[in-house]
Design a protein that fits this description.
CATH superfamily of the largest domain: P-loop containing nucleotide triphosphate hydrolases
Motif (RadA KNRFG motif): 257-261
Region (Lon-protease-like): 358-465
CATH class of the largest domain: Alpha Beta
Number of domains: 3
Largest sheet: 9 strands, mixed
GO molecular function: ATP binding; ATP-dependent DNA damage sensor activity; damaged DNA binding; hydrolase activity; zinc ion binding
Strand order of the largest sheet: 6-5-7-8-4-9-10-11-12
CATH topology of the largest domain: Rossmann fold
Protein name: DNA repair protein RadA
Keywords: ATP-binding, DNA damage, DNA repair, DNA-binding, Hydrolase, Metal-binding, Nucleotide-binding, Stress response, Zinc, Zinc-finger
Number of strands: 21
Structural class: alpha/beta
Number of helices: 10
Length: 465
């Protein structure tokens, strides 16, 4: 007698499947995300046998495979093209994720307008399941993004979206968003794991068959990861995150995966009343303009992808905490764990009594810096605040601080120094062995420890050039 089919329970956040209901998903740890799916029928034992068949696409020598179909087509939005490796690829699928209100729809409306206005690209179709066509038209009026070849369709059914693709034959499809589209071919609610997987798979197949560049907008969870099944990121060709603080005009487009180019590029944008504007040279965006140096500030150079960007680090050391009270540590734009480590090194290795004092540290301009190369700048800023002695305004500090007080090497030092020299900085403090390729007009000092770096900074301030 055949065994009855058993129900399965699937997590709506990560797609993990278990045989019985649990309150917390074993795969991702989310609570209350398990839902019952269709019964699972146990397969019969024995090996799987697949009958060979003749492929409709026979294998070719790699020398005979054309490379032209994988060429990038620029969209006209410079920083967007930079992150994608030169533009959109016909048949390529991009997954763009970001928090609500960060400006994803505004950016893609500009991309669609540039695509439609360019000759030879074909119409651009925006299929929106979150807004009406009238709402998108109002935004286009504000941005000046009107063109006869820019088509709009407000749909939530996949079959209707595919019908629009057959009628319009667009060169670019923007789906905003993939979580709002559903199909009757599979069970599940819109935005669920099953629906998102099925919708994405069909759209990717259509994009590949037609050579249609496609951009799928994805929602993010409260942790900042892309909502839906992880397989969605594996199916697409490119994954990018659009980031930014809603209280700041700065927006960053960060590449995470790219089959057609570098996966570590970062594009800079500014949110204005007229839309999202590319910032090809954000050099001084994260620096303050002050007449005289003040204690507690130091400039470093961080690498965002392949781009070197100068960032000012600020620190304020307050009074000592009461006995038995943990001193406050507040950071903005920096890694709190690395700040605590730098404070411990300054306290133990350099004699700066900071562990029992309140410390506040932040970056300028809303930039988030997490790489260890900013450790030395944090140390100099904290030490400057403690001693009330400013760091010279023409110094940049680059280096990772170790627990023994040594300064370790970091990557891309020549590129960082070249960017600092371009913006007018005359002196740099770097780890030992990294000062061989000093740019013209810049003096580079090597430091092996935090104490040595503090002495070099003090000498520079005392000499003032």
């Amino acid at each position: 007698m055949a065994k009855p089919a058993r129900s399965a329970w699937q997590c709506s956040a990560c797609g993990h499947t278990v045989s019985k209901w649990v309150g917390r998903c074993p795969g991702c740890g989310e609570w209350g995300t398990m839902s019952e799916t269709a019964p699972v029928v146990a397969a019969k034992g024995g090996p799987i046998r697949t009958t060979p068949r003749v492929s409709v696409n026979p294998a070719l020598s790699i020398t005979n495979v054309p490379a032209e179909p994988a060429r990038h087509r620029p969209t006209g939005v410079g920083e967007f093209d930079r992150v994608l490796g030169g533009g959109l690829v016909p048949g390529g699928v991009v997954l763009l994720a970001g928090e609500p209100g960060v400006g994803k729809s505004t950016l893609l409306l500009e991309v669609a307008h540039k695509w439609a206005a360019a000759p030879g690209g074909g119409p651009a179709l925006i299929a929106t399941g979150e807004e009406s066509a009238s709402q998108v038209r109002m935004r286009a009026d504000r941005l000046g993004a009107l063109h006869p070849d820019l088509m709009l369709a407000a749909e939530t059914d996949l079959a209707a979206v595919l019908g629009h693709i057959d009628d319009i034959k667009p060169g670019l499809l923007i789906l905003d968003s993939v979580q709002t589209i559903s199909t009757t071919e599979v069970e599940g609610v819109p935005g669920g794991v099953t629906q998102v997987r099925a919708v994405a798979a069909q759209l990717i197949a259509v994009a590949k068959a037609r050579g249609m560049a496609t951009v799928l907008v994805g929602h993010v969870t409260k942790e900042g990861t892309i909502a839906g099944p992880r397989v969605l990121e594996h199916l697409v060709d490119t994954v990018a995150h659009f980031e930014g603080d809603r209280h700041s005009a700065l927006r960053l487009l960060r590449g995470v995966k790219n089959r057609f180019g570098p996966a570590d590029e970062v594009g800079c944008f500014e949110m204005t009343e007229t839309g999202v504007v590319s910032l090809p040279d954000p050099g001084g965006l994260f620096l303050t303009e002050i007449a005289e140096p003040v204690p507690g500030t130091c400039v470093t150079v961080t690498m965002e992808g392949r781009r070197a960007m100068l960032v000012e680090v600020q620190a304020l050391v307050g009074g000592s905490a009461k006995e038995g009270v943990v001193p406050r540590r507040t950071v903005s734009g920096l890694d709190g764990a690395r700040l605590n480590m730098v404070l411990a090194v300054l306290h133990r290795r350099s004699g700066k009594k900071v562990l029992d004092r309140e410390v506040y540290a932040a970056t300028v301009g809303g930039m988030r810096v997490t790489e260890p190369a900013a450790d030395l700048a944090v140390a100099l800023a904290v030490s400057s605040s403690v001693s009330e002695a400013p760091v010279s305004a023409d110094i940049v500090a680059i280096g990772e601080v170790g627990l023994t007080g040594e300064i370790r090497r970091v990557t891309a030092v020549p590129r960082r120094l070249a960017e600092a020299a371009r913006l007018g900085f005359k002196h740099a403090i770097v780890p030992r062995g990294c000062g061989n390729e000093a740019p013209k007009g810049m003096t580079v000092s090597e430091a092996g420890s935090v104490d040595e770096a503090l002495r070099l900074s003090a000498m520079r301030w005392a000499g003032r050039g």
